[in-house]
Amino acid sequence: NTGSAPLSFFLFEDEIDQFLTKQDGKIYRNRDPQLCRHGALGKCVHCVPLEVIRVIFPHFYLTRDIDVFRGKFAALENISCKIKSGCEGHSPWPEGICTKCQPSAITLNRQKYRHVDNIMFENHTIADRFLDFWRKTGSQRMGYLYGRYTEHKDIPLGIRAEVAAIYEPPQTATQNSLELLEDPKAAAVDEIASKLGLCKVGWIFTDLVSEDTRIGTVRYTRNQDSYFLSAEECITAGHFQNQQPNPCRLSREGHFGSKFVTVLATGGPDNQVHFEGYQVSNQCMALVRDECLLPCKDASELGYAKESSPEQYVPDVFYKDKDKFGNDVTFLARPLPVEYLIIDITTTFPKDPQYTFSSSQRFPIENREMLGETQDFHSLATYLSQCSSTVFLNIVSDFHLLLFLVTNEVMPLGDSIGLLLDAVKTSNEDVAQTWKKSEQWATIEQLCSTVGGQPSSSHGYGAMGGPSVPVSASSMWSCLHCTFMNQPGTEHCEMCSLPRS
């Protein structure tokens, strides 16, 4: 149905969507030598391609409907909770409303499909560096996931979100809360990621409470007896998903749902850190977008559908559950269990680590001044002095370093870094060496030699503690097993209890 969306949206549809749209989604099987009684070109019930029965991913869901209707009526509708504008038969709300402009009531259902089927971190280093903040301070942390969407080959027409880097925006945090601050560098980060062939695929946050610092265990607090995501976290996820809509040619608005994922780092049943992946449903996105959903103050696991007011009409929201006799009963969503809004996504790490960026070099992460880790020319000089014998492409293949080169206030490179980003994207050492000979890099080296290679002053941090007695960063040592920063004079890691060497 080419008339269902403007032509401009066709040009921006994700590459993975364009690829999967051309696939049929069937599971093909080889000829069974024992059961099949036909020739090599024949098919029978034992080897005919299988249709996927359980509909859990949108491309098969859409492919099935297009096949049924032969593409004539395939149009996806986004849910709206607002009164339709332009109705002239009566006075505007609250004086009047009619069935033409009144939004339909919403009955919450568990979504039958996922926009993303798997989340995969390229390697453990990405997650470990993110968790270092909590290990050293005990405060929670949030970051944006940058990566790419690829085909998930383990299931038909599956989509995988691969995470290559985590950007940590300005924020204030405690052991129990997180508050995001305005980020003046947000647009620059997205632009750099785009030039590297990456995009913002999700967000990650921690909810960790240390149980025993001697053995490095954490409390198991999120389970079927409590909650998996709180209502406030669901609303935040819905807000982010609305900011990152999924371009779709089958929608009149040009978008349908979102591929933006949520990853939670929390304690698991074995009291170790686990990464859990989620999305919220399209119904939740609509309720959040139209400001119809609120969190409950005294129950984190419950949301609350707003009531209509003179300023805003809110449609009735219902959900179905079983009563004490086992009968299906419809309830008004005041309050509302957020399980109806959540979609579970598996989160994995590959057996063979992948590296979009260098695995050996580590430039300080942005917005970690609380740890005494700063991004300035002192830290850059120290970083370059430590990497003097390394191939130049490996030195600059660091997401956080590239961000600093573009956004620093002393000498922002801006558009002049395009050639270097191409070199990192294509892993081309010759192109990197060409950029190294530029005037911009020569100026940066001159600035580094001027400020010297000594790192800026920092303070030592203990496990879950905050600043302790000032200690030289060089006298502390990092555990080879869990990367925890230990105080000098100890031979065993305070976090995992393993030996230093």
Quick gist of this model?
The protein has helices at 7-11, 15-21, 58-69, 124-137, 186-195, 231-243, 282-289, 377-386, 392-396, 399-407, 418-426, 429-436, 439-451, and strands spanning 106-108, 118-121, 142-152, 158-167, 171-173, 178-180, 199-207, 210-212, 217-218, 261-267, 273-280, 293-295, 302-305, 317-322, 328-332, 336-337, 342-348, 461-462, 466-467, 477-478, 485-486. It is an alpha+beta fold.
Protein architecture, described:
- This protein is of the alpha+beta class and 501 residues long.
- Among the domains are: 111-312 and 337-348, Cytidine Deaminase, domain 2 (3-Layer(aba) Sandwich); 369-451, no CATH class.
- Helices cover 25% and strands 20% of the residues.
- It is built from 13 helices and 21 strands.
- It has helices spanning 7-11, 15-21, 58-69, 124-137, 186-195, 231-243, 282-289, 377-386, 392-396, 399-407, 418-426, 429-436, 439-451, and strands at residues 106-108, 118-121, 142-152, 158-167, 171-173, 178-180, 199-207, 210-212, 217-218, 261-267, 273-280, 293-295, 302-305, 317-322, 328-332, 336-337, 342-348, 461-462, 466-467, 477-478, 485-486.
- A 7-stranded mixed barrel has the order 2-4-3-7-10-11-17, surrounded by 5 helices. A 3-stranded mixed sheet has the order 1-14-15, with no helix packed on it. A 3-stranded antiparallel sheet has the order 12-13-16.
- A hairpin with a 4-residue loop joins strand 5 and strand 6.
- Helix 6 crosses helix 7 (282-289), helix 8 packs across helix 13 and helix 11 runs antiparallel to helix 12.
- The protein is globular.
- The model is unreliable at 1-11, 66-70 and 454-474 (pLDDT under 50).
- Belongs to the NPL4 family.
- Residues 119-256 form the MPN domain.
- This is Nuclear protein localization protein 4 homolog.
- GO terms for molecular function: ubiquitin binding; ubiquitin protein ligase binding; zinc ion binding.
- Keywords: Metal-binding, Zinc, Zinc-finger.
